[in-house]
Amino acid sequence: MELKGAQTVFYYLLAFFTLIMGLSLIRARSAVHAALFLMGTLIGVAGLFLLLHAEFVAGAQILIYVGGVVVLFIFVIMLVNVRDEITEATRLFTRQELAAWILVGLLAVGTIIAIRREPNLIPREITPPAAEETEAAAPQSSDTQNVGHTLYTKAALPFEIASLLLLVAIIGSVVLARTRRQEETFD
Question: Is 170 exposed, middle or buried (0-12, 13-18, 19+ CB in 10 A)?
Fold first, then answer.
Protein backbone atom coordinates (compact mmCIF):
# COMPACT_ATOMS: atom_id res chain seq x y z
CA MET A 1 0.00 0.00 0.00
CA GLU A 2 1.32 3.39 -0.96
CA LEU A 3 0.76 6.33 1.36
CA LYS A 4 -0.41 9.56 -0.24
CA GLY A 5 -0.81 13.10 1.03
CA ALA A 6 -2.04 13.43 4.58
CA GLN A 7 -1.79 9.66 5.09
CA THR A 8 1.98 9.96 5.10
CA VAL A 9 1.90 12.68 7.74
CA PHE A 10 -0.52 10.69 9.90
CA TYR A 11 1.59 7.56 9.46
CA TYR A 12 4.71 9.28 10.76
CA LEU A 13 2.82 10.95 13.62
CA LEU A 14 1.22 7.67 14.71
CA ALA A 15 4.47 5.75 14.32
CA PHE A 16 6.33 8.34 16.41
CA PHE A 17 3.55 8.35 19.04
CA THR A 18 3.54 4.54 19.22
CA LEU A 19 7.33 4.44 19.47
CA ILE A 20 7.39 7.03 22.28
CA MET A 21 4.64 5.19 24.17
CA GLY A 22 6.47 1.88 23.76
CA LEU A 23 9.75 3.34 25.01
CA SER A 24 7.94 4.97 27.92
CA LEU A 25 6.32 1.63 28.70
CA ILE A 26 9.72 0.01 28.97
CA ARG A 27 11.15 2.83 31.09
CA ALA A 28 8.17 3.17 33.46
CA ARG A 29 8.96 2.57 37.14
CA SER A 30 5.34 2.26 38.24
CA ALA A 31 3.14 -0.61 37.12
CA VAL A 32 0.15 1.73 36.76
CA HIS A 33 2.15 4.10 34.55
CA ALA A 34 3.33 1.13 32.49
CA ALA A 35 -0.27 0.01 31.97
CA LEU A 36 -1.25 3.53 30.85
CA PHE A 37 1.70 3.67 28.42
CA LEU A 38 0.62 0.25 27.11
CA MET A 39 -2.82 1.73 26.52
CA GLY A 40 -1.26 4.58 24.53
CA THR A 41 0.80 2.12 22.49
CA LEU A 42 -2.26 0.06 21.63
CA ILE A 43 -4.21 3.17 20.63
CA GLY A 44 -1.34 4.16 18.30
CA VAL A 45 -1.36 0.70 16.73
CA ALA A 46 -5.13 0.99 16.23
CA GLY A 47 -4.52 4.27 14.40
CA LEU A 48 -2.03 2.52 12.13
CA PHE A 49 -4.65 -0.14 11.40
CA LEU A 50 -7.03 2.64 10.38
CA LEU A 51 -4.46 3.88 7.87
CA LEU A 52 -4.40 0.37 6.40
CA HIS A 53 -8.21 0.56 5.98
CA ALA A 54 -8.63 -2.25 8.53
CA GLU A 55 -11.41 -0.57 10.50
CA PHE A 56 -12.64 -3.77 12.12
CA VAL A 57 -9.19 -4.69 13.39
CA ALA A 58 -8.72 -1.15 14.74
CA GLY A 59 -12.07 -1.30 16.51
CA ALA A 60 -11.30 -4.72 17.93
CA GLN A 61 -7.90 -3.43 19.06
CA ILE A 62 -9.58 -0.62 21.00
CA LEU A 63 -12.45 -2.68 22.40
CA ILE A 64 -10.59 -5.85 23.32
CA TYR A 65 -7.09 -4.76 24.21
CA VAL A 66 -7.55 -1.20 25.45
CA GLY A 67 -11.04 -1.61 26.83
CA GLY A 68 -10.62 -5.08 28.26
CA VAL A 69 -7.12 -6.35 28.75
CA VAL A 70 -5.44 -3.12 29.89
CA VAL A 71 -8.33 -2.31 32.22
CA LEU A 72 -7.97 -5.84 33.63
CA PHE A 73 -4.23 -5.22 34.11
CA ILE A 74 -4.94 -2.00 35.98
CA PHE A 75 -7.58 -3.77 38.09
CA VAL A 76 -5.13 -6.52 39.06
CA ILE A 77 -2.35 -3.99 39.75
CA MET A 78 -4.65 -2.11 42.10
CA LEU A 79 -5.61 -5.30 43.93
CA VAL A 80 -2.13 -6.71 44.40
CA ASN A 81 0.04 -5.13 47.07
CA VAL A 82 3.03 -3.90 45.08
CA ARG A 83 4.68 -1.73 47.72
CA ASP A 84 6.80 -4.58 49.11
CA GLU A 85 8.21 -5.36 45.67
CA ILE A 86 9.15 -1.81 44.60
CA THR A 87 12.71 -1.80 45.94
CA GLU A 88 13.51 -5.23 44.50
CA ALA A 89 12.06 -4.25 41.11
CA THR A 90 14.12 -1.06 40.88
CA ARG A 91 17.29 -3.01 41.63
CA LEU A 92 16.35 -5.52 38.95
CA PHE A 93 15.64 -2.91 36.25
CA THR A 94 18.78 -0.83 36.83
CA ARG A 95 21.01 -3.76 35.92
CA GLN A 96 19.48 -4.13 32.48
CA GLU A 97 19.72 -0.57 31.21
CA LEU A 98 22.99 -1.03 29.29
CA ALA A 99 21.69 -4.15 27.55
CA ALA A 100 18.47 -2.32 26.66
CA TRP A 101 20.36 0.59 25.06
CA ILE A 102 22.54 -1.83 23.09
CA LEU A 103 19.41 -3.60 21.85
CA VAL A 104 17.79 -0.29 20.86
CA GLY A 105 20.95 0.67 18.94
CA LEU A 106 21.01 -2.67 17.12
CA LEU A 107 17.34 -2.30 16.19
CA ALA A 108 17.96 1.22 14.89
CA VAL A 109 20.91 0.05 12.77
CA GLY A 110 18.82 -2.85 11.44
CA THR A 111 15.99 -0.49 10.54
CA ILE A 112 18.35 1.87 8.70
CA ILE A 113 19.87 -1.04 6.77
CA ALA A 114 16.40 -2.34 5.83
CA ILE A 115 15.32 1.11 4.63
CA ARG A 116 18.44 1.52 2.49
CA ARG A 117 18.04 -1.90 0.87
CA GLU A 118 14.38 -1.27 0.01
CA PRO A 119 14.11 2.29 -1.34
CA ASN A 120 10.32 2.13 -1.83
CA LEU A 121 9.72 1.32 1.85
CA ILE A 122 9.38 4.98 2.79
CA PRO A 123 7.77 7.40 0.34
CA ARG A 124 10.22 10.12 -0.66
CA GLU A 125 7.71 12.78 -1.68
CA ILE A 126 4.18 13.67 -0.78
CA THR A 127 1.97 13.84 -3.84
CA PRO A 128 -1.57 15.21 -3.70
CA PRO A 129 -4.25 12.68 -4.60
CA ALA A 130 -5.69 12.80 -8.09
CA ALA A 131 -9.06 14.44 -8.59
CA GLU A 132 -10.63 11.12 -9.57
CA GLU A 133 -9.49 9.51 -6.30
CA THR A 134 -10.95 12.24 -4.11
CA GLU A 135 -14.35 12.04 -5.83
CA ALA A 136 -14.59 8.28 -5.51
CA ALA A 137 -16.07 7.05 -2.27
CA ALA A 138 -14.11 4.77 0.02
CA PRO A 139 -14.32 1.18 -1.18
CA GLN A 140 -17.07 -0.74 0.57
CA SER A 141 -16.01 -4.05 2.05
CA SER A 142 -18.07 -6.87 3.44
CA ASP A 143 -15.17 -8.21 5.50
CA THR A 144 -16.52 -6.77 8.75
CA GLN A 145 -19.94 -8.30 8.10
CA ASN A 146 -18.38 -11.67 7.31
CA VAL A 147 -16.28 -11.63 10.48
CA GLY A 148 -19.27 -10.60 12.61
CA HIS A 149 -21.52 -13.24 11.08
CA THR A 150 -18.89 -15.96 11.61
CA LEU A 151 -18.10 -14.77 15.13
CA TYR A 152 -21.71 -14.87 16.31
CA THR A 153 -22.79 -18.03 14.46
CA LYS A 154 -19.93 -20.49 14.09
CA ALA A 155 -17.56 -19.18 16.80
CA ALA A 156 -20.02 -18.16 19.51
CA LEU A 157 -19.00 -20.96 21.89
CA PRO A 158 -15.22 -20.23 21.81
CA PHE A 159 -16.01 -16.53 22.21
CA GLU A 160 -18.04 -17.24 25.37
CA ILE A 161 -15.36 -19.62 26.67
CA ALA A 162 -12.79 -16.83 26.32
CA SER A 163 -15.02 -14.50 28.36
CA LEU A 164 -15.35 -17.17 31.07
CA LEU A 165 -11.56 -17.55 31.15
CA LEU A 166 -11.24 -13.80 31.72
CA LEU A 167 -13.77 -14.05 34.54
CA VAL A 168 -11.78 -16.88 36.14
CA ALA A 169 -8.60 -14.79 35.82
CA ILE A 170 -10.27 -11.87 37.61
CA ILE A 171 -11.52 -14.11 40.42
CA GLY A 172 -8.07 -15.69 40.72
CA SER A 173 -6.41 -12.30 40.96
CA VAL A 174 -8.80 -11.25 43.73
CA VAL A 175 -8.05 -14.45 45.66
CA LEU A 176 -4.29 -14.00 45.23
CA ALA A 177 -4.43 -10.34 46.21
CA ARG A 178 -6.09 -10.97 49.56
CA THR A 179 -3.67 -10.67 52.45
CA ARG A 180 -3.80 -12.39 55.83
CA ARG A 181 -5.07 -9.20 57.45
CA GLN A 182 -7.98 -9.07 55.01
CA GLU A 183 -8.79 -12.75 55.62
CA GLU A 184 -8.75 -12.26 59.40
CA THR A 185 -11.08 -9.28 59.06
CA PHE A 186 -13.66 -11.33 57.14
CA ASP A 187 -13.46 -14.41 59.39
Answer: middle
